[in-house]
């Protein structure tokens, strides 16, 4: 049996282990709502206590991360029906496994993250296809636009669990820079309210990641559309809306899910660049 990898990442990059934890734990449940064998495979190759981390971020925390993954899967598949040869770019890809769950055999995939995260990804998830490209850059280094080339075939940008770790001004500046240059592209990302930031930061710290903090909180996603004339809000969905098969959760967790959605604590947002 080959040796397991030790994880050495920056403070924010280390949080890539949280969604991986959720996918691993959910995939091992007989009644799980997401099945991700590739994530389970990854988990067997690194030194990390997934069970402990799952307990630290709580059952509802795991459920939220899984629900977010399912939302992103939905948007990918919707994009593929319209753009079967289109390009899909993930900002802050970490150890996400969208390609393995959603690839249609024809899309072109670009996975971007900081060098230490991509180095880990290359060890655990070597480039799986000639249609997949890894980019070692910050999402704020917008030269990645040159790396992906023409978007005439369509472009979907994914940013799962990324934007809330930065200040609003940073995200605003990023979108204002890229939207005019990528007209016709769509971007999907998640947002969280100020109340959600307080709750989630507590759980992140309890999971041992004490220097990683969510910063950008928002409820009125319509405000984003007003940042730039090139931004059009397509929709925003609370995490648990339209997620089926939640029967196994107890009453308390179901109530928390309802509260999350009613108060728009965590949402997935889709914008179009016009």
Number of strands: 7
Shape: globular
Distance between the termini: 52 Å
String of helices and strands: HHHHEHEHEHEHEHHEHE
**CA-atom Rg in angstroms:** 18 Å
Tally of DSSP helical segments: 11
Strand order of the largest sheet: 3-2-1-4-5-7-6
Q: Structural class of the secondary elements? A: alpha/beta
Describe it.
With 274 residues, this protein is of the alpha/beta class. Helix content is 40%, strand content 16%. The chain has 11 helices and 7 strands. The protein has a 7-stranded mixed beta sheet with strand order 3-2-1-4-5-7-6. Helix 1 (17-27) packs across helix 2 (37-43), helix 1 (17-27) crosses helix 3 (50-57) and helix 1 packs across helix 4 (59-82). It starts with 16 loop residues before the first helix and ends with a strand.
Short description:
The protein has helices at residues 17-27, 37-43, 50-57, 59-82, 98-102, 115-124, 144-148, 168-178, 194-206, 222-225, 251-262; strands at 87-91, 108-113, 132-136, 155-159, 186-192, 231-238, 266-273. The chain has 274 residues and is α/β, with parallel strands linked by helices.
Notable characteristics:
274 residues; alpha/beta; 7-stranded mixed sheet; 11 helices
Q: How are the secondary structure elements laid out?
A:
Layout: H1 17-27, H2 37-43, H3 50-57, H4 59-82, E1 87-91, H5 98-102, E2 108-113, H6 115-124, E3 132-136, H7 144-148, E4 155-159, H8 168-178, E5 186-192, H9 194-206, H10 222-225, E6 231-238, H11 251-262, E7 266-273
Parallel strand pairs: 1-2, 1-4, 2-3, 4-5
Antiparallel strand pairs: 5-7, 6-7
């Amino acid at each position: 049996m080959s040796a397991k990898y030790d994880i050495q990442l920056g403070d924010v990059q280390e949080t890539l282990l949280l969604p991986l934890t959720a996918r691993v734990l959910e995939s091992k449940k007989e009644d799980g709502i997401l099945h991700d064998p590739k994530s389970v495979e990854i988990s067997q190759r690194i030194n990390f206590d997934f069970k402990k981390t799952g307990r630290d971020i709580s059952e509802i925390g795991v459920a939220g991360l899984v629900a977010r993954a399912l939302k992103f899967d939905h948007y990918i598949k919707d994009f593929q029906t319209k753009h079967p040869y289109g390009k899909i770019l993930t900002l802050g890809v970490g150890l996400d496994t969208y390609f393995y769950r959603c690839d249609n055999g024809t899309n072109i995939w670009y996975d971007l993250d900081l060098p230490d995260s991509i180095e880990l990804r290359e060890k655990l998830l070597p480039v799986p296809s000639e249609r997949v490209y890894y980019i070692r850059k910050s999402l704020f280094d917008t030269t990645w636009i040159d790396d992906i080339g023409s978007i005439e075939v369509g472009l979907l940008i994914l940013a799962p669990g990324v934007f809330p770790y930065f200040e609003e001004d940073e995200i605003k500046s990023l979108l204002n820079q890229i939207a005019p240059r990528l007209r016709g592209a769509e971007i999907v990302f998640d947002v969280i309210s100020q109340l959600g930031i307080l709750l989630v930061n507590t759980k992140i710290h309890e999971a041992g990641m004490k220097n990683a903090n969510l910063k950008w909180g928002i409820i009125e996603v319509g405000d984003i559309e007003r940042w730039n004339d090139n931004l059009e809000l397509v929709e925003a969905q609370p995490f648990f809306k339209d997620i089926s098969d939640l029967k196994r959760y107890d009453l308390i967790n179901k109530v928390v899910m309802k509260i999350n959605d009613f108060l728009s604590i965590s949402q997935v947002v889709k914008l179009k660049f016009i």
